[in-house]
Amino acid sequence: MSTSFTMIGGEGPDSYQKHSKWQGGLLEAAKEKINEAISTKLDIDFTSNLVNIADFGCSTGPNTFKAVQTIIDAVEHKYQKENNYEEIEFQVFFNDSSNNDFNTLFKTLPQARRYYTAGVPGSFFGSVLPKRTLHVGVSSYSLHFVSTVPKEIKDHDSQVWNKDIHCTGLSKEVVKAYLDQYKIDMGSYLNARAQELLSGGLLLLLGSCLPNGVQMSETLNGMMLDCIGSALNDMAEKGLIDQEKLDTFKLPIYVAYASELKQTIEDNGFYTIERFDIISNENEEIPIDEEFLTVSFKVTVGGIVASQFGQDAMEKTFEVVKIKTQEILPQLANAKPEMQYLIVLRRI
Ligand SMILES: C[S@@+](CC[C@H](N)C(=O)[O-])C[C@H]1O[C@@H](n2cnc3c(N)ncnc32)[C@H](O)[C@@H]1O
Fold first, then answer.
1. How far does residue 58's CA lie from ligand 1's centre (Å)?
2. Who lines ligand 1 at CB under 6 A?
3. pLDDT per residue over 239-280, tens digit each?
4. Which of 95, 112, 182, 206 is the most buried (most CB within 10 A)?
5. Is Magnesium given among the entry's keywords (predicted)?
């Protein structure tokens, strides 16, 4: 059974919509490179002046609007420059899991947009669009999810049972179980997009990966996931959540090493890798303190915690997370950095 992991919806103070500036920073930082990649690498046979764009793992916005607008501006710029520009029409498909808050997404669409829209709910590990219809696809911060938590690590009686909520610990077997699932899922994602994309179309992938030699537990994300795990343990000790439920609760996340990501793409064989860039996503306006970190993780991980333990328990857990985050701020300040990437793939 697949595990659904959506962001907290709505437009309220604890929503992804209000707290996803950091993720949006990568789209800003990658804008020029995306523009250049579309200008030089997109090679579609233009028969109908209709360009189809899709965002896989769009959440509620506003980052998805930034992603599609960046692509649209770049496509218009390219075809204006090449002098074969009649009026191009754009159709944008927003994809996410069916329990994503699509209502908020459509309610907050930019007023001044010049594109048609449609929601295409469903897992991006399978097809969500008809074959050979897509010109440019994008996924931003969506590919560190796996479709399901490997079952052996959830089983208390298994030798590879993972006592933590994630694979930040040093058990090689647990990490391998996650990696095996990641390779299957990433392969399915690339196969599905390969069916949907037209030859010469582009797939833009953005997100975080691990530099070689860095353990997840040494990064800020790993430390924060451990902090959430520790807060959940405290909750179970106080009897506020069920210990058995906690023992089987694992996050369906795998942050790959850059080399694993590259290898998975090369093994797939449907694409040429046009760019594999490491980009700095340092937003100095965002203060890295307990307020920011707690709410950032609440809007991303809070949904799955609430679906397992209930809304009340989730709220209490994140109160504990905030206290624990404040205590570990010096360690967090010395966390080893992850790497942010922009990968541009061209469908062969
Ligand atoms: C961290 S959010 C990123 C949202 C947005 N792209 C951004 O850059 O801010 C990841 C999104 O991926 C979606 N997602 C995860 N697994 C998915 C799947 N199998 N199929 C479709 N969407 C998925 C989640 O629901 C979530 O909305």
1. 6
2. 5-7, 20, 23, 57-59, 63-64, 95-97, 100, 123-125, 140-142, 145, 147, 300
3. 999 999 999 999 999 999 999 999 999 999 999 999 999 998
4. 206
5. yes
- State mean pLDDT over 149-164: 85
| C-alpha separations of 281 from 208, 226, 338, 342 in Å | 10, 23, 10, 11
Q: At what angle do helices 172-196 and 258-268 cross, to 10 degrees?
A: 40
Superfamily of segment(s) 21-347: Vaccinia Virus protein VP39 (3.40.50.150)
Residue whose CA is closest, atom 8 of ligand 1?
140
DSSP, collapsed to helix, strand or coil, labels residue 78 as helix
Residue 326 has pLDDT above 70, yes or no: yes
Instruction: Give 141 Cα–ligand 1 centroid separation in angstroms.
Output: 7
Ligand 1 centroid–CA 21 distance in Å is 15
User: In sequence order, what DSSP letters do the residues of 290-313 get, joined into one string?
Assistant: HHHHHHHHHHHHHHHHHHHH-HHH
The 10 Å Cβ neighbour count of residue 269 is 11
Q: Whose CA is nearest to atom 23 of ligand 1?
A: 57
The residue ranges of every structural domain in the chain are: 21-347
| CA–CA distance, 265 with 23 (Å, rounded to integer) | 23
Q: Is the N-terminal amide bond of 62 cis, ω within 30° of 0?
A: yes
Cα-only R_g, the chain: 20
Q: Ligand 1 test: best mutation among 3, 26, 96, most atoms within 8 Å of CB?
A: 96
**Owner of token pair 């994309």:** 197
User: Whole-angstrom Cα distance, residue 314 to residue 347?
Assistant: 42
Residue of 22, 64, 145 to mutate, ligand 1, most atoms within 8 A of C-beta: 145
Q: Identify each DSSP E strand in the chain by its residue range.
A: 50-56, 89-95, 116-119, 134-140, 197-209, 271-279, 339-347
